[in-house]
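Input.
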Amino acid sequence: MHLLILGGTGPSGIKLIEEALVASHTIVVYVRSPGKLPEAIASNPSVTVIEGQLTDVEKLTAALEGVHAVLSALGPPTKTGPVYPSNTPLAHAYAVVIDAMEQHGVKRLIALGTASIKDEHDKFSLIFAFLVSGVSIFAHNAYKDIVAVGETIRTRGAEADLDWTIARVPLLTDRESKDVVAGYVGDGRTKTTLSRAAFAAFVVEELEKNQWNRAAPLISSP
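Output.
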């Protein structure tokens, strides 16, 4: 497939690009700072790098030409503190992305989310309640934005008739294991950590298998 990848300069995004290349996909990487991409990715003949902002509708729409699916590792920075903007920039970016996808007839979106995005299949988990509450209290604007991302993908995705998946992640690690469990909060199977390599492996596999279409599973290491 020919893919557009967003958030490609972050550690999860780099893993996602690498995994997609291993699976023989061709990739358009739409990034604000191309210089942050590893040289091995930037110089790969299967990769096209386009510099642009997520608010640049014209550039983003052009980047979607010929694309079959959009994979996103976009998320709030890990160190946000009180300076994170209050106007939900990621959620607004996803609205722009979905509108551009609709213009090009691109129907598949797989996006990173977190446990702050609730799902009707979730059950109560004390440890996840603690983790989410901590984010809500100490990084409230980032929390508000990621919750809005979930709402935007579900609402705008339904309006655009998208086949979307929100891969909700717990605490991310740099372990190399690609083992992953997919389920929901409090199901007795999912845990509180996930390697970035496993996130990438799940997304690329989901692109091929479509097991979680229009769903928001929590994915974790076993």
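The mean pLDDT is 95.
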